[in-house]
Write a structure and sequence with these properties.
Oligomer: single chain
Amino acid sequence: MPEPMGHGSRRLRADLALLATAVVWGMAFVVCRMAAARTGSFLYNGARFLLGALTLLPFAGARLRGLTRVEVRGGALVGALLFVAAGLQQVGLRFTTAGKAGFITGLYVVFVPLCLALVWREWPRGSTWVASLLAAAGLFLLSAVEQLALAPGDGLELVGAVFWAFHVILIGRLARRVDVLRLALMQYLVCGLLSLTAGWLFESSTAPGLLSAWWAILYTGVLSVGLGYTLQLVGQRQAPPADASVILSGEAIIAALSGWLFLGERLAPWQLLGCGLMLAGMILAQASLWRTGDRGRA
């Protein structure tokens, strides 16, 4: 039975919002990698997430009077997950390429059903395990160097991908229950304040370092955070998490293309094969959910 026209148009807008998010996030890998050489990772994240909150404040400020307990607690939780995931990602970018970081981060598409199985006891089917093995093999080929070892940055990106998976799952569970602008503002503030605190405690970079990366903070703060993460919330109000994660995983392809266009990064043939295996694993993990009709579960 065809979907009502109103619902179909809302889903189309949601998918377009998620696609725009993937493009903005994918291009941000290049900017973040360039910023990683200029300033501390946590101070950089703190500055850009607080700038993202400041960007959103004119639109969400009038709604703060209606802030609910679910939005406060949910915003604090997803903000803390965002702090860990973004922190691992930014530190990892010091030791790997933008393209590889984008593809490894994209493994959250596979980790979403795995995390649901371990935490919520929603067990994935056999095809999802096959997808995980494909993605793991692709990761090995993509990240292997002459000694066939994983670079330190690749490991950090991989651990970060697990936290991104939890972030996507919780956003999907919260987005339809709360005001998305209030939730977005809460998570930006929590992530930004935690990042600044970690930067002051563990990093030597100061104001001059942040000033040297002002252009990266401006781009990622306004576009990647203020626009991108807000569009993610808007999109996940209508798109089931399984559909949303497929579209969002397109950031890996954009990251690789951006690294090639702007940083001159190259991938060897076996690394290109690894990218293909990872992409196949991502698609297979989601295709199994589509076939079984569980589109709203992962």
